[in-house]
């Protein structure tokens, strides 16, 4: 116990008065937050103009992947057809628009992990896939069977490995193709469930638009908004810490390109670009800056400038693995990494300060 | 609480800052309670802030990054401020002058988890660490020599789990109680949770003299995704713990529990009406001075929940948005802090505003 006496201060009335002033000097006024109407409006826009259309796009893109894959499996080839590649790229882009949303139906029933088991630092997916291919079991090709396997082998990374893994083993090619088709169907099923669970009566849309009362997830009008702000910040952190950092490492000497996202299909940069578009689009379509009218133009301009800087920085004109080995490109990727921090600061500080609503300091990311 | 004379208050603040911190006079009778927390004061700017029971600043110091918990050495009036996970520094601070004495860094392939404690005699500092250099991350307790000025790392204990988080020193001055949160992380992937499907959290007791595992408390396998992270001792010496749920969001598992003398955990149920308020997340777990009351905060739920330490019953709760830091003041009263800078006094199920600082209080508040 550290004892601190008050006597010293009591010696002088002047000091006592000054002490009172000091005690107050740290007292910051509480910022009045935006009106309920303004909050509701942003939540509704985010849901109807971003979240739901994005899940619908994912559902539609996965449906096309199923068709392309079914077609392709009639004559399995070592390298994927153009149609399969294009359909996969479309799914990847649609996925980048929702994979940072850690709430709602996609965050339930392990749908997120099943759709894309990333990151996978222990290589669980690759190991399990090897085991499956070493002893191809026809039962696994029954409709719905893959959904009962581990999350690591029923989603995007497994599909990517099967289709883009460049194995010309003729013996398993038909099996691989069928398995990839089943995974594509699984992706479509998960995305369809997400859309249904968002849009059905009493679904996540209703939950988010009707906070308070018996609603146990959103208790007042600010909570859906906080969810949206957290989504933006989480999206930025995901790009930075989970997609860039593992590959960048501490220096170019320790860079590990293989740890990037969707490297096998050569889609790493396309995916990162789509992730940046997702943040832009969510901010723009939700009109979240309308909650701080005086600052809206400035904050939007700052966000857009930073995201443009990000896109230009990652546009290195080289495939991902080469970019991480080339000093000039590596430096640009590092810059892109830093830029994402500045965008995060816009939401964590500048917006929070101006609008009086914050993604939370302790609440954002528990410990 | 607002004051309009910002020019004057700034001046007065600066003038007084030189006088106030830990003003001390031999023979003085009146004691002032002092509390310490890490705070964020701007974008990526973090400080250590010492406040009194009225929320007034009595000391502050810049930090290299975001910190988490603070260990206190009452013997030599030192603090050990641990960086938030994945943490790469712990600053030893002289509490009275609020100046740094030394900075400890974990060895290669380790990072701090944000918690630690001094040994009873203050000669050793224990820190929970992630040993991530091997194939699988695992929890260890790093042991640092705090008897001199070197703060050299002199050894480590296994925590027999992953994600070692808060650590307590039992009343015998010898037994370490450590919560293994069970969530695997690796700094190469930031704070991403890597193993939710394989979680197996535990609370272990370790003999600090030998490093031996004395016993281990685990929950029923249906609660594998219930990460036990923060703890306190109640008046009877039982360990209370708080959890975060990593499973389905629609499920409302109990989040607070107590470990009995037999080493078995009993989970304490929230009343149905209250259960949703916690948002499946408990941040700090702190016992009152008299040991009768346990306060558990949920920054995500914006609530502080109080429990009767004897009966284990839920008592009441108060709303404190983004509130996480709790420290016992006197009797069954607490001081609570929030991410929006508020300092509140909590007693008998009521929350009384004390001050609002222009700083965002981090997860843990400690009384010095």
Describe this protein with a few key phrases.
heterodimer; A: 367 residues; mainly alpha; A middle domain of Talin 1; 2 domains; 14 helices; disordered N terminus; B: 368 residues; mainly beta; four-stranded antiparallel β-sheet; 28 strands; 3% helix
Annotation field: number of helices of chain B: 1
Distance from N terminus to C terminus of chain B (CA atoms, Å) equals 26 Å
Structural class of chain B: mainly beta
Quaternary organisation of the protein chains: heterodimer
Main sheet summary of chain B:
4 strands, antiparallel
**How large is the count of helical segments of chain A?**
14
Global structural class of chain A: mainly alpha
Rounded mean pLDDT score of chain A: 89
Order of helices and strands of chain B: HEEEEEEEEEEEEEEEEEEEEEEEEEEEE
Instruction: Determine the strand fraction of chain A and express it as a percent band.
Output: under 5%
Shape of chain A: globular
Q: What do you see in this structure?
A:
The complex is a heterodimer of chains A (367) and B (368). In chain A, α3 runs antiparallel to α8 and α7 packs antiparallel against α8. Chain A is mainly α and 367 residues long. The longest helix of chain A is centred in the N-terminal third of the chain and has 37 residues. The N terminus of chain A is likely disordered. Helices cover 63% and strands 0% of the residues of chain A. In chain B, a hairpin with a 5-residue loop joins β16 and β17. In chain B, 52% of the residues are buried. The radius of gyration of chain B is 20 Å and the shape is globular. Classes of the chains: A mainly alpha (367), B mainly beta (368). The interface between A and B is large, with 56 and 84 residues.
């Amino acid at each position: 116990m550290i004892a601190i006496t008050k006597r010293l201060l009591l010696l002088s009335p002047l000091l006592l008065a000054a002490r009172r002033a000091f005690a107050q000097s740290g007292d910051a006024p509480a910022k009045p937050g935006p009106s309920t109407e303004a909050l509701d409006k942003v939540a509704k826009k985010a849901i109807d103009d971003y979240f739901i259309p994005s899940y619908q796009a994912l559902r539609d893109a996965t449906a096309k992947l199923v068709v392309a894959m079914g077609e392709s499996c009639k004559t399995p080839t070592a390298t994927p057809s153009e149609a399969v590649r294009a359909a996969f790229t479309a799914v990847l882009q649609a996925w980048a628009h929702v994979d940072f949303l850690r709430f709602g139906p996609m965050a339930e029933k392990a749908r997120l992990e099943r759709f894309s088991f990333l990151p996978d630092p222990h290589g669980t997916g690759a190991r399990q896939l090897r085991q499956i291919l070493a002893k191809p079991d026809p039962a696994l090709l029954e409709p719905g069977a893959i959904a009962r396997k581990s999350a690591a082998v029923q989603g995007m990374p497994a599909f990517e490995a099967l289709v883009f893994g460049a194995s010309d083993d003729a013996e398993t090619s038909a099996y691989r193709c069928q398995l990839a088709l089943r995974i594509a169907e699984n992706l479509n099923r998960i995305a369809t469930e997400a859309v249904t669970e968002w849009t059905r009566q009493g679904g996540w849309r209703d939950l988010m638009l009707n906070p308070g009362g018996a609603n146990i997830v959103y208790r007042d009008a600010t909570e859906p908004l906080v969810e949206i702000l957290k989504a933006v910040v989480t999206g930025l952190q995901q790009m930075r810490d989970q997609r860039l950092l593992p590959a960048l490492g501490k220096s170019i000497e320790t860079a590990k390109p293989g740890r990037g996202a969707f490297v096998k299909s050569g889609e790493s940069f396309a995916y990162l670009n789509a992730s940046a578009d997702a943040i832009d689009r969510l901010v723009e379509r939700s009109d979240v800056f309308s909650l701080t009218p005086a600052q809206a133009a400035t904050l939007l301009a700052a966000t857009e400038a930073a995201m443009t800087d990000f896109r230009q920085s990652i546009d290195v004109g080289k495939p991902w693995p080469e970019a991480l080995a080339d000093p000039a490109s590596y430096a640009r990727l590092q810059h892109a990494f830093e830029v994402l921090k500045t965008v995060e600061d816009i939401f964590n500080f500048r917006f929070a300060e101006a609008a009086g609503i914050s993604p939370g300091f302790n609440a954002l990311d528990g410990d | 609480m607002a004051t309009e004379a910002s020019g004057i208050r700034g001046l007065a603040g600066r003038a007084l800052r030189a006088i106030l911190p830990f003003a001390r006079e031999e023979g003085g009778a009146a004691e002032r309670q002092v509390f310490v927390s890490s705070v964020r004061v701007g974008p990526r700017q973090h400080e250590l802030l010492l406040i009194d029971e009225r929320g007034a600043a009595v000391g502050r110091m810049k930090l290299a990054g975001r910190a988490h918990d603070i260990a206190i050495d009452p013997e030599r009036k030192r603090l050990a401020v641990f960086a938030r996970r994945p943490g790469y520094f712990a600053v030893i601070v002289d509490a009275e002058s609020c100046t740094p004495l030394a900075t400890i860094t974990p060895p290669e392939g380790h990072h701090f988890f944000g918690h630690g404690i001094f040994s009873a005699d203050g000669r050793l500092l224990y820190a929970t660490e992630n040993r991530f250099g091997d194939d699988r991350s695992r929890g260890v307790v790093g042991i640092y020599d705090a008897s001199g000025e070197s703060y050299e790392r002199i050894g480590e204990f296994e925590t027999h789990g992953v994600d070692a988080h808060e650590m307590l020193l039992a009343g015998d001055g010898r037994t370490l109680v450590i919560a293994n949160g069970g969530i695997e992380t690796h700094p190469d992937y930031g704070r991403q949770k890597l193993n939710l499907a394989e979680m197996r959290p535990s609370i272990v007791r370790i003999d600090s003299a030998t490093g031996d595992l004395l016993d281990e408390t685990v929950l029923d396998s249906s609660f594998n995704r219930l990460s036990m992270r923060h703890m306190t001792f109640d008046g009877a010496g039982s360990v209370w713990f708080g959890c975060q749920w990593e499973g389905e969001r629609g499920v409302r598992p109990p989040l607070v529990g107590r470990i009995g003398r037999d080493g078995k955990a009993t989970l304490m149920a929230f009343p149905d009406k209250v259960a949703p308020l916690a948002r499946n997340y408990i941040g700090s777990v702190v016992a009152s001075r008299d040991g009768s009351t346990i306060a558990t905060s949920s920054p995500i739920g914006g609530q502080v929940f109080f429990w009767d330490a004897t009966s284990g019953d839920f008592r009441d709760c108060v709303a404190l948005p983004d509130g996480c830091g709790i420290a016992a003041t006197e009797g069954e009263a607490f001081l609570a802090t929030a991410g929006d800078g508020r300092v509140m006094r909590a007693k008998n199920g009521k929350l009384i505003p004390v001050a609002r600082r222009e700083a965002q209080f981090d997860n843990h508040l400690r009384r010095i």
